[in-house]
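[[Sequence with C-alpha cells]]
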Amino acid sequence: MAAHDNTRRTIHKPLSWGLFSLGIFLVALLFGLFGCRAHPAPTPPWPDQRKAMRPPYTSQLSLPALADAPSYRLRETVDLAQRVVQGTAHIRLTNRTSASWDSIVLRLYPNLLHYGGRMEVSQLLGDGSPLPFDYNQTHTALRGLLPQLLKPGDSITLDVTFATHYRTWNLDGYWLFGEYDGLLNMPLSYPVLAVPNDDGTWRVEDGIPLGDTLVAESSFYHVWLTVPATMTVVSSAVVSATQTYTTSTDVTYELVSGPAREFTFMLSPLYEVKQRTVNGILVRSYYFLGDEDTGEAALNYAAAALQVYSRHFGPYPFAKMDIASAMLLNRGMEYPLLTQLGRDLYGPEQRKLEFLVAHEVGHQWWYNQVGNDQIQEPWLDEGLTEYSTYYYYQDIYGRDDADAVLHNRWELPLEYIRRKGLDAPLDLPASAYTRDNYEIIVYGKGALFFHTLRHRLGDRMFERVLQTYLERYRYRLATAKDLQRVIEDVSGQDVQDLFATWVYGSPTSSPVTSPEDR
C-alpha cells in the first residue's frame, strides 16, 4: 500500500504542474494577442511626403534634424486674368531654439524689388485666434505678436490668408518672378517662416539681386494648387493626385514634398517634355517648341550629373528631378527637385548649357540637403556646388577637361580681378561684393578653395569629408565653422591655415593653384 500511494503521488504531481503551465501559456497567449490589438505598429512619419522620396531613403524622414520640422499646408488658386494667386497657408511650427519667442516672423519674398510682385496678408491666426501683426520697412517681413511667450519645445499653428500679385514683364530679361511670353514663374508665392536664431531673434536680411535671397529650414509641404486646365504645371513637389472641377476650366493638383527648403511652381501652356528613369529617379526636361534637341541634351546632362554626384557625395534620395526652361537669359536657378535654365541656353548660348545643368543639379546636395545662410555665407553652397562640376567633367570627360574648367572658369578670372584690386576674402556677406567680383569670388574662388583642400587631403580623404559633411548636416543649416570642424574631425588635420588664407584672410593671401596642384 505504501509503495502504491507513493506511485500515485509521483504521477499526480507532474500532471498538476503541467496543467498549471498550460494555463499560464494560454493566458500569456491571450494577453499577447490582445496586447497586439491595443498597441498597433507606429505610423511612419510624414506618410504623404514619403511619395516624394525614393523608397530606400524614406527612413531619412525620421532623422533627428527633422524632428518637429515646420510643415506647410498651402491652398493656392491662380487667376491669370487678374494676375494674382489667392491662397491660405496652414503652418505648424515648433520652437526648436533655447529662447522663448514673443513673436513669429514670416517672409514675404514677392515684395522684393527685383521680384517685382506684391504679397498682401489679410489675416493671421495663431492657434485659431487673431494675431496682431506689422511689417518691416521693406514689407518683406511680417511680425506676428504672440499673446504669450512660446517657450522652447512648444508649438503653434499659424493660419495665413494672403494674395500674391505678380506682374507681366514686357522685355526679355532675367526675371525670377512673374509672367513673360506665356510662362509664369512663381517661387515663394506664399508666406515663408523666417529662420530663428538661438537668442530669440529672426533672420530678416533681404539679400541682393546678384545672389540668392532665401534662407530657410527644411520643411514639409502639402499643396493644393488650382490652375487653368490648359496649363502644364512644373513644381518642386511630386503630384499626389489631380481633380478636375465640374466646370472643366480649372484643375487642382495635390502636391507633396519634403524635406525641402521651399516650394515653387511654373505654368505654361506651351511646355513639351522628355523623360527617363535613372536609378529609380524620374528625370524630366521641360522645353518649348523648337528646342527638342537642347531639351533632350539638358535631360542627358541632368541624368549624368545625378549619377556622378550620387557616386561621389551620397545618393540622391528624392523620387524625381525636373529641368525646365525659364525666364533667366543664359543663367540657371536651383529649387528643390527642380532646376531652371534660361531660354538663351536652349539657343544662342547653348554652349553653356552643360555646365549650367551640372552646376544647378549640384545644388540638390549643397542647398536642398545641406543648407546654409546664403546671404551671410554665400560661398559655402555656391563654391562647393561650383567645385562639384569638377567631378562631373572629370568623370564624364577626364581629368584634362576638368582641369580646363578649373583654369578657364576659376583661375583666370581670379587672376584678372586681383590685377584690378577687386579680390576679397570668401567669408563676407553677399552685400559686401560688387557686380564686378561677386561671382568670381563666391563661385570661382570658392571652388579653388575646395580644390586646394582636396590637394591637401588627397582624393579619397576629400570625398570622405564631403560625404561626412552631407551626412552630418543633411536637412540642417551649416556654417563655415561647421565645415572646418568636419574636415578636421574626418582627416585628423589642422586646416586653420587654409581657412585663414582663403576664407578669412587678406584679399591677396590665397594663391591661385598651379598646374601641379591639380
Q: What stands out?
A: The chain has nine helices and 23 strands. Residues 54 and 319 are 5 Å apart (CA to CA). The two ends are 103 Å apart (CA to CA).
